[in-house]
Amino acid sequence: MIRAVKGTRDLLPPSTEVWNLVEEAARRVFRSYNYGEIRTPILEETQLFARGVGAETDIVTKEMYTFDDRDGAKLTLRPEATASVMRAYIEHHLDQRPGVQKLYYIGPMFRRERPQKGRYRQFFQIGAEAIGSESPFIDAEVIEMAVELLGSLHLEGAQLLLNSVGCSKCRPDFLAKLREELAKVAPKLCADCQRRAQTNPLRVLDCKVPEDQPIIDALPSILDHLCADCRQHFDDVQQNLTARGVAFQVRPRLVRGLDYYTRTTFEVVHGALGAQNSLLGGGRYDGLRRALLDPNEQRVLDNRLALVPPLAGAIQEGGQIPKELDPKIEGSGIGFSIGEDRLVMTLEEARGGEIKPALDLFIAPMGDVALRQCALLARDLRRQGLTIEIAAEGKLKRAIELANKLGARYTLILGENEMASGNYTLKNMATGEQQSISREELPSRLSRG
Ligand code: HAM
Prior knowledge:
This protein is of the alpha+beta class and 449 residues long. It has 18 helices and 16 strands. Helix 1 packs antiparallel against helix 5 and helix 1 packs across helix 14.
């Protein structure tokens, strides 16, 4: 038997109802914050992720589905979408559109991780990106939007964790310090940490191995090494969140597994998820646009920045690009992605199992003539938004059994006489009560409101 590929799965009804519910809520909340949908291809050039996510990250070194196309091009199934959104921002000159570019996406991502509960090789993300501003106000707005979305789904027990990972000015000093301290303790850490101490020391802070925790807790904290600008930015983000009534906890060890992050990083975790407890992750990525460009393109970008009046003088004088770049052209942004598989799982667990959609009416026709005629009745009711099922074949007894199994709210048994007179007997499946009802009364009786 051919089965679904390891780490991938079929999503089936009624669970897909919850998926749709979550996606509808996301679209509604995103729209209310003036976000528009972006759909980027699932296939991208491998370079995009090597440059964007980072050549030394676990995602790029171990987890990507990469292959040579027939013409020799190296392609990758997207492991995440932020790099793709930034590629589209550059490719379609979105920096020339008015205002901050606010974009959302819903779709599958691919990472060749070891499958377990809440971790798949094809998984779905619901994400949002705001590109073109460095303002801490936007950080707070993006984070508030994520929290609002979870709140609109009545998800309880989620915790928002917040950190700043600094910028290209202050992080190198911190990394040097961290390497120095790690050199002293690395032999006592787990094998993964020993490797990361060499390749990607920040990721050591993220280690979950219990025995390593006391050692890692004693390592230097990034929050003690932020430059003045990053410190101010982080303070402002926190003040903005507090002003909005968004509760958070500062976690100096929250560094996240993608290299593009600068300044704000955040995660929402949920206890019900177990080991894979991260429901969503996000952060700011002010250097991502530049990281995606090759050296020639970077020069073109610098020339454009040089035309921005306040910068022109500074660039002409020293030939150096000052830090205060134009955020729209620089593509400064912040966003998050929700793990939709994990969100659906958490909601289903919180609600005690699968959520069954309502089947408003089950029609059991008696005979072929009634079957054909009741199709018109069903069509009229469906046009009014009701969910109707008709037993197309089989005996009446079987039909009633099926109505019960499907969880129909009401059942209608229709013979030719009933069809001709327009007077029906409607059975309430929960109470067993039967009522005589006219065709005209049917829609209001069935309505869920
Ligand atoms: P990420 O932390 O790699 O960030 O993934 C975000 C979320 O996707 C995780 O919190 C988790 O819920 C879900 N997720 C990740 N891997 C898997 C998996 N193998 N199976 C199931 N769920 C998974 C990003 O992807 C960034 N692009 C987020 C972002 C957007 N940052 C800025 N903008």
